[in-house]
Amino acid sequence: MALVFLIVFIVNILLIFSMTFLERKRPETIISWLVLFTYLPIIGFLIYILIGSGLSIKNRNMLKRKIHFEKHYSKFVQADVREDGSLTRAQKEIVSYNLNATDNPVFFGNDVKVFTNGPDKLKALLEDIEKAKKSINMEYYIFDDDETGKIVMEALCKKAREGVKVKLIYDSVGSLRAKRMFFRKLVKAGGEVEEFFPPLFHIRLINFKMNYRNHRKIAVIDGKIGYTGGINIRNDHMGKKKRLSPWRDTHVRIVGSAVYGLQNVFFKDWFFCKKQECDSSFLVSEGYFPKIKKIGEIAAQVITSGPETKEQYIKEAFIKMMSLAKKSIIIESPYFIPDDIFMSAVKRAVLSGVKVKVIIPKKPDKKIVYLATLSYARELVEMGAEVYMYRGFIHSKMLVIDDTAVSIGTCNTDNRSFALNFEVTTIFLNQQFVNYCAGICEGDLAFSSKTDLEYFKKKPLFNRFGQVIFRMFSPLL
Questions:
Q1: Rg for the chain (alpha carbons), in Å?
Q2: What is the pTM of this model?
């Protein structure tokens, strides 16, 4: 027995060494793993091997090639993007920061429609799929083999049989419940399908990269119409799960040059899955980046983040936005488990006199994650922010700053989305549109109950104990 513990101890020390010097994980993440190794040495080791180990050298090299494609793409789009002079000083600061950090330009002249529930988004998406003439590119974290998934799959197969180029990426972990036979329908119809980070030997439960999930939701029709936001292709996202009803989400339909940004994200992931290299000139010649005239008045900047870079670009963009707020910040997220840097940014905003409102669900879908969320929610209240609990499940990922900017995308306000998942968000810069989104948030606030410290103090002892315990593992959740 003593020998077993000695071996486990040596292995754990080697894992800590690997995390510190080879994988260069963040200190808070290393500490969380160290706690797990200490109290659950063998189980902790198995969990780490399954979900905690970093990306392989092969995957990192492939992701570097993905960044190489980004550079080719940037040269192409920047030749077509022209500033129209409509941005305020604060908006220009946001754009400049993100451009310098990520090399992603701002796109002017877009028309944007917001969906606040799944059925409305699904109806519009199906209509656009039906009208597609040349191409349909879709990338979803969850594409389930249920009623909703079958409807979308049949629509895609129909267009593929008509000769439209249809490409689909689904995440291996998010779409775990959908069998591969379901996706082969599209291949048989003439479409193409790729699984993001497929498991070892194609056995779904043996996936050593399951910690790195492609959480993006993107659809691009004919290179001219783009969809992104929080709504996946699954029944519960259509509000069909009574336990989480009413389900509130946010998704957008973009018409205009900002679709270039979404198309770029899709093809970076597509060629990564295909293990191929490609530059933008080929995609332009194939009609995936058509010339787009000015459609509306909204400027937009598409930002991505993922484990391929050390920088957490979306989190940093959020912090930059909050630093420019003068009056109000509204955050909507189903999970609120940020790091100390993000919490410090919120605290600075509160101390500067900015009214900060955070909306989280009252009905949790993941109890462990929710306990950690409650711990941070209490800290928000203690620092002077306002926390509201939506009387249902709110899956919306939205950040509204004054009448300056609004971010709508796939990124939750938690460490997983900031550091581990492949995410995408679009920052919209137009006063009228930002005010419209703020109005949506006001409606959510009216359907929510405001919390105070008494709410947290009255929680049962086991609940408060759970908050403390699971907060310790927040970098891993």
A1: 22
A2: 0.88
